[in-house]
Amino acid sequence: MIAFGTISSVAVACHVSPSTVARVATSLGFDSFKQFQACFRQHLRNRSASAGYP
What we know:
Helix content is 67%, strand content 0%. By secondary structure, the chain is mainly α. It starts with 6 loop residues before the first helix and ends with a helix.
């Protein structure tokens, strides 16, 4: 969900405000939600590559 959702859709799914999602991302050391999201996308790319998918 984080990899492909918007900050608003993640917030709705977690029953919090978008600003809470942004604060979680920054408190984990990311500069923004976009950077946080990029980390999840990269993780999915790595997993699919290790599973033999292009």
